[in-house]
Amino acid sequence: MKKYLVGGAVRDTILGRELHDRDFVIVGASGEEFLTTYRGAKKVGKKDCVYVYKGDEYTLSNLSGIHEDLLHRDLTINAFAKDEDDGSIISHPDAPGDLENKILRPVREENFLNDPLRVFRAARFASEFPGFRVHPELIRIMTRIGEKGLLGGLAAERVGNEVIKACSASAPGRFLRLLSETSALTPWLQEIKDAKGIPAGPAPFHNESLLEHTAAVMDKLAGLPLCVWMGFCHDIGKTGSPKESLPAHHGHGKRGRTPAEKIGVRLRLPNKYINAGAVSAEKHMTASVYDKLKTGSKVRLLMMLNRHNLIREMFEVVKADKGTDFIEQAEEDARRILSAKLPEELRGKGSESGEKLFQLQCRTLTK
């Protein structure tokens, strides 16, 4: 039985990056032999060969050795292994050079054909390593898979997991750009598949495509994963603007709620993401003119955002989208509004109580 640390953990150790997960490959052992040595390991997923032991993932390889295992990886920069017996590093022949020269290169085309999810993984790695160049061969393979329609058969949870990881990356907009470039937005992100040919808006406010504007907003929100998803969704309603009205996008906020929800549900994202995407699409335009809203409109907006616990997040999106910063003012206004309490004698009267509370809330902003 041979044990190897593989993939990202070895790569990140070489790069001096912080380790988050450790994956191991076991070569030369049956399931029974493995469980005899690693008592308490639990099988995960539908595959018989994958286990979790003390928080780490172990895969039992049925290949002839670690060198053959590395040939089944997605990208060369992930085709590293460390022998846990002697500490030696084994790698794909191109791996050291590609890591040093910052190149995202596929190991083999057939690996992507066998598991098309690697298209999304490759785009996610592009977002996690913004200084790395995407090799033309990777673009070719991703494009082929996208154009052949091979992505539709993937499990929604697997795709959604890659999307969430991309939202946590340092350059999340690159995920979107690369999927667009390689015809890989359909079917999972199909609402935005034509965004490259849609103007983001009229001059002088915009001179870029909707896709580039969306990616740029996502990049500005890097480090705030939920906000990045909201940035992805915020202008989704513009994809439904009548062609004759372009480059204007009247009513795109209200129009965007449904497609934002559909994408989140399709990817089986957490409810927090589904709700946040829908709220971002519907309310970002209202929030972007916060300083011009009437008092009652401010109260309604902030109370709605507060119910979803999205006040700061919504105004982070506005800041990234429009460059206007209402975050501190909105949070202070929300604190005042929430401090309003109905006297005991005015409670329990249904809509009348609701109206009285609303008036008290408005008064807190006019003092």
CATH class of the largest domain: Mainly Alpha
Order of secondary-structure elements: EHEHEEEHEEHEHHEHHHHHHHHHHH
CATH topology of the largest domain: Hypothetical protein af1432
Average pLDDT taken over every residue: 94
Q: Detail the poorly predicted runs.
A: none
Rg of Cα set: 25 Å
**CATH architecture label name of the largest domain:** Orthogonal Bundle
Strand content: 5-15%
The number of distinct structural domains comes to 4
Q: What would you say this structure looks like, in words?
A:
It is a single chain. The chain has helices at 8-15, 31-37, 66-70, 95-101, 109-114, 117-128, 136-147, 156-167, 173-181, 210-220, 225-233, 252-266, 271-288, 295-307, 311-322, 327-339, 351-364, and strands at residues 2-6, 23-27, 42-43, 50-53, 56-61, 80-83, 89-91, 103-104, 133-134. It is an alpha+beta fold and 367 residues long. The protein has 4 domains: 1-100, Beta Polymerase, domain 2; 102-187, Hydrophobic Seed Protein (Orthogonal Bundle), CATH 1.10.110; 189-334, Hypothetical protein af1432; 335-364. A hairpin with a 2-residue loop joins strand 4 (50-53) and strand 5. The chain is globular and about 75 Å long. The mean pLDDT is 94.
Give a short summary of the structure.
The protein is α+β, with helices and mostly antiparallel strands and 367 residues long. Helices cover 50% and strands 9% of the residues. The chain has helices at 8-15, 31-37, 66-70, 95-101, 109-114, 117-128, 136-147, 156-167, 173-181, 210-220, 225-233, 252-266, 271-288, 295-307, 311-322, 327-339, 351-364, and strands at residues 2-6, 23-27, 42-43, 50-53, 56-61, 80-83, 89-91, 103-104, 133-134.
